[in-house]
Design a protein that fits this description.
33% of the residues lie in helices and 14% in strands. It has 156 residues and is an alpha/beta fold.
């Protein structure tokens, strides 16, 4: 949503927008949070006057590195855009996920720490599969996400 329209029409605090996604949605919110305008992914819709920046991201089973079959692996991988000044991120990963492997998420978290990112949180749930942020673990993951967003937004 464009910031000016949000502020005038709905009184939304556009400096306090957070995003959550699971699986492909986690990939999208990580890209939204990490890839700045210089990545060339903002589109051509005439919205250059409006920022798409957000305050924090939470993602479950997050594809952080795109396989080559999807085109430009580097351009479309959140791992490419990791920097020390990255926004706060919470990732949730199951150890038994056959779709997004824990090792891939480990690599992303390690890179965030390596570059000095200030707020990367990682919740690993033993035995959980790809639906880690839903179903059997909702009592754990829902609270973790709520607590994370509430803490981040309280600081802003």
């Amino acid at each position: 949503m464009c910031r000016k329209m949000a502020q005038s029409a709905r009184k939304v605090d556009t400096d306090r927008i957070v995003a959550y996604g699971h699986s492909a949605g986690a990939h999208l919110v990580l890209m939204l949070g990490l890839a700045g305008p210089e990545a060339g992914l903002e589109g051509d819709g005439g919205w250059d006057d409006y920022s798409s920046s957000i305050t924090a991201v939470a993602g479950g089973s997050p594809p952080t590195e795109m396989p080559g079959r999807y085109g430009d692996t580097e351009k479309y991988s959140p791992l490419t855009y990791v920097t020390a000044d990255a926004l706060p991120i919470l990732l949730i990963q199951g150890t038994a996920d056959p779709i997004v492997r824990k090792e891939t998420t480990d690599k992303f978290v390690d890179k965030m720490k390596e570059v000095g990112a200030k707020d990367i949180r990682y919740k690993v749930i033993e035995g959980a599969v790809h639906d880690v942020a839903y179903n059997n673990y909702l009592d754990i993951t829902s609270k973790a996400i709520d607590d994370f967003f509430n803490e981040v937004l309280a600081k802003n």
